[in-house]
């Protein structure tokens, strides 16, 4: 598992967020190399590749959002407002606007086998909320891609940083005010690395 690259036992000097960032750095590097979003940044993406990226993202976010919904009752109150279908709904609107209709059988086929614990939910939330930071960068390049010129107001890569940063800041503030054991952190880290695999 990629999280082995950092020593969780050093955690007393590091915050859980720092450990999650360091412990998912390899997963993130892989995502940056392999995810079709890199073709938005170098402006070479075709319309078909953009649709594929939106579809892969839709399945990944939908699956994680469903898992979070199913386990919302075990989350602390401070984090329940982060549980929503906002990201997959925005992706669905983008896909629909491009003529891609998602049927319910695709939606139902998604499942998340992760054992549920608050720690694993935190790992999944870390990835989907943190990914919005990269999303803001990617959004700036959409209008510069020749194949995407006609897409005026995307819902997902919208660059609406204010809303996206609000959730991220709330999430970070909550984590920074809690105490975590090595075991809590390891579970969150394992779940975060697992969450990355949904996007490949
Ligand atoms: C081409 C693809 C991608 C690019 C260019 C990209 C870029 C970025 C950038 C610029 C940041 C902000 C870094 C910082 O402030 O230190 C970030 C953060 C992050 N991204 Fe990505 N990203 C990409 C793909 C992904 C994917 C597919 C995921 C997983 C769904 C993801 C998850 C995250 C997470 C969790 C963070 C927060 C890191 C932290 O500060 O703890 N990224 N990304």
From TrEMBL:
Pfam families: Heme_oxygenase. InterPro entries: Haem_Oase-like, Haem_Oase-like_multi-hlx. It comes from the Bacteria. This is Heme oxygenase.
């Amino acid at each position: 598992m990629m999280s082995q690259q950092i020593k969780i036992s050093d955690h007393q000097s590091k915050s859980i967020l720092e450990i999650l960032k360091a412990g998912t750095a390899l997963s993130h590097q892989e995502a940056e190399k392999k995810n079709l979003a890199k073709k938005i940044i170098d402006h070479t993406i075709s319309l078909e590749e953009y649709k594929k990226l939106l579809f892969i993202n839709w399945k990944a976010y939908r699956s994680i959002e469903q898992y979070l919904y199913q386990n919302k009752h075990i989350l602390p109150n401070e984090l329940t407002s982060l549980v929503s279908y906002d990201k997959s709904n925005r992706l669905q609107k983008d896909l629909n606007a491009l003529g891609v209709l998602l049927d319910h059988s695709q939606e139902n086929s998604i499942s998340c086998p992760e054992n549920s614990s608050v720690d694993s939910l935190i790992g999944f939330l870390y990835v989907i909320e943190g990914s919005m930071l990269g999303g803001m960068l990617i959004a700036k390049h959409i209008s510069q891609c020749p194949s995407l010129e006609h897409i005026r107001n995307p819902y997902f890569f919208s660059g609406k940083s204010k809303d996206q940063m609000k959730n991220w800041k709330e999430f970070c503030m909550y984590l920074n005010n809690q105490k975590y054991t090595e075991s809590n952190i390891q579970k969150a880290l394992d779940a975060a690395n697992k969450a990355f695999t949904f996007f490949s």
